Amino acid sequence: MSMFDSDTSSQGNGDKHFRQISRDRLLYEMIRSAKRPDSKSSNWKVLIMDRVTVKIMSCSCKMADITDEGVSLVEQIHKRRQPLPSMDAVYYIQPTKENVDFLLADMAGKAPLYKEAYVFFSSSVSKELVADIKKEPTIKSRLRGMKEMNLEYFAIDSQCFITDHGSALEELYGDEEFSRKGDECLTAMANRIATVFASMLEFPFVRYRAAKSLDPTTMTTFCDLIPTKLAAAVWNNLMKYKTLNHFPQIETCDLLILDRSIDQIAPVIHEWTYDAMCHDLLEMEGNKYVHVVPSKTGDGYERKEVLLEDHDPVWLELRHSHIADASERLHDKMTNFVSRNKAAQMHGRDGGEMSTRDLQKMVQALPQYNEQMDKLSLHVDLAGKINGIIREMGLRDVGQLEQDLVFGDAGTKDIIKFLKEQDATDEQKIRLLMIYVATHPEKFETDKLAKIIELADLLPEDMKAIYNMRFLESAPDSMNTSNNGFPLKFDNKKRRGLRKDRPGEEAAWQLSRFYPIIEELIEKLSKNELPVNEYPCMNDPSPTFHGASHSVSARVLDAPAAHSMRSRRATWARPRNSDDGYSSDSILRRSASEFIKRRGKRIFVFIVGGATRSEMRVIHKLTTKLSREIILGSSSLDDPTQFIEKVKALTPDPPPTEEEIAIDDLEI
């Protein structure tokens, strides 16, 4: 490894999904390469990371993976560490002044903490920081090499990443004009997005939601320009990466930059898939769930932490299924598991059809089948709890009204009737009213909204979530525009929904009618039918302004398909006929090998302000449907309660009145 290397190449990826590529780069291109050329045996080394890179690593790799590559100890750079002068150190850090100071403190001077160091920066390092390192006289002989990994994103799913800007919604939207703080947020976000393309060796056509205020009759706002500003910042970073070895010089993929204003419904509507229901209704910490299982000693129960992630074959198979479908398939799996086991059949000879719970308890009594049973028992328990909550909270009625509002089959009268007659929770009412104002934005200008919110009997803090939806004004909606780009007039006598039923995709299950708007945008992008006046392309400046024709879009996007410098991937196909206790394992074995060969370029979609689980579901669905690997990125991944709290934070809390100041609040 040279003193400074910006080569991001990595060979032999094979048919691997997005997160697998990130994992391989971290393990093999970084950790494995930090090895002395004259070393005949595997020397143990220390891995040192900062607060950000440790999270990046944990998203893609497990501790066992890191240990297998010769790492015996993982440390954080900002903490005091024990000197290990006989061991080499691998630094995976952000290129900040603070981190470089820590590095110099570790390795300079007469008594360095480690024998020698391999330094990997997560993104581009400035010339000033490189100069600071080089001017330290004692460190040069102790550095085996420095390299820009250009990997500073969080791969939270096989086809999804975040930049970990959880406060982006609060920093970029609100009731005040944002300037420096918002620009700094977008710059940091753009830097991390660009490392995705540097890591994947892809050069994209950069398309983005155009500002509505490009119309000279309207005023430009900071919020309206967010996708435009982010697209420009990403583009500037990509131009720097074009000087790297192996980085493509012509476009190889598509990037579509959006913001949360394009779909205000998806973050709050009840999504009825197994994955979304788990995170919406159960007490989970990230992907971690505490499962209560019978004690191995037979006396009582014990708590067991489990991760709902890709390594779980049952989760991988069912997570995007409707909760009713998932429940049925789990029962089928349990039934088939029992039918294949003669001892289990003996226990069930008392007659009558057994419930899923009975089957679960029976098989748990057979110790020799515990390993297979554990894969099913967890999900039977989860699905049972979810279905119980749905019944207890009357969520089907709430969900039906939500979807009727979105598709234009319900209106103000239905909302009033529901609030008067149904005993809904505050959260249900908040989410329902957030959907109502998103579908009826004109109500912000009338007294009727205040009366409806008064009828809901919400706390002032909760009312903020509803009123603050006005800051997420709807973007240009290509579904409601004519071919010449002008809005179509609404017929008040007809439905005025924000969604239209999609032909050929009738809902197979109740309450599965809703789809996030990115589904239609991605399909239009794939067909080169995305209106260029609403979604211009950064690669050609001419479509940026009004009057651009569709022929321009076709010329830009119909260029000969260039290949990524990395090996081509395809998508997994999720089998529908896996219905027993064993066959889910085959999904993990085939998830990479059954990636169908892609016939088109990758599509990257980035949403500023937080993505949703329904949008994650869509990108997996469309990857199979379009035979193109689709990767979703966002500033964060938000569940409904998280999004509601972020919308509340768009306006500051009012100062307390004199009546609200208590004696305890006074400082004497």
Explain what the structure shows.
- By secondary structure, this protein is of the alpha/beta class.
- It is 40% helix and 12% strand.
- It has 24 helices and 15 strands.
- It has helices spanning 18-32, 51-60, 63-68, 97-107, 127-134, 168-172, 180-200, 226-241, 274-281, 313-318, 323-339, 342-347, 356-364, 370-393, 395-406, 412-421, 426-439, 448-456, 460-467, 518-526, 550-557, 584-593, 613-626, 640-648; strands spanning 45-49, 71-76, 88-93, 117-121, 143-148, 154-157, 160-162, 204-208, 253-259, 288-294, 301-307, 570-571, 596-597, 602-608, 630-634.
- The strands form 4 sheets. It has a 6-stranded mixed sheet with strand order 6-7-15-14-9-8, with helices on both faces.
- 43% of the residues are buried.
- This is SNARE-interacting protein KEULE.
Write the layout of secondary structure elements.
Blueprint: H1 18-32, E1 45-49, H2 51-60, H3 63-68, E2 71-76, E3 88-93, H4 97-107, E4 117-121, H5 127-134, E5 143-148, E6 154-157, E7 160-162, H6 168-172, H7 180-200, E8 204-208, H8 226-241, E9 253-259, H9 274-281, E10 288-294, E11 301-307, H10 313-318, H11 323-339, H12 342-347, H13 356-364, H14 370-393, H15 395-406, H16 412-421, H17 426-439, H18 448-456, H19 460-467, H20 518-526, H21 550-557, E12 570-571, H22 584-593, E13 596-597, E14 602-608, H23 613-626, E15 630-634, H24 640-648
Helix pairs in contact: 7-8, 9-14, 11-13, 11-14, 13-14, 15-17, 17-19, 19-24, 20-23
Family: Belongs to the STXBP/unc-18/SEC1 family.
Pfam families: Sec1 (PF00995)
Organism: Lactuca virosa
